[in-house]
Amino acid sequence: MAKGHRSQIKRARNAVKDTRPSAKLSYARMSVQKACYVLDVIRGKDVQTALGILTYNPRYASSVIKKILESAIANAENNNGMNVENLYVAECYANKAPTMKRIKPRAQGRAYRIEKRTSHISIVLDER
Description:
Layout: H1 6-15, E1 22-28, H2 32-42, H3 47-56, H4 60-78, E2 87-96, E3 100-105, E4 111-116, E5 119-127
Antiparallel strand pairs: 1-5, 2-5, 3-4
Helix pairs in contact: 3-4
């Protein structure tokens, strides 16, 4: 059990705020596995290289992730005043989001369930 009053605990938790620029897309219409294929490629790369990789990657996830990366770069420039040449992808990950359940009719009156998976994709940048 944590010590102190609830407000003290909240104050201590909020004191350790991450100031790195980031961007997040919630409820992206793709599975976590498909997003992670693309995210694994750009992790640790500088932003110019990552944008080049995402531009010519044939996967659908790369077009969505490219928009998130561009948003994170814009956040770094406008909100934090960082230089774009020094930025790199510090963290990028996809977490599971709610799954939409749909029904597909099959032979002899049966019904199969189709799961349309979604994900939350986050990109965090940092300066070298």
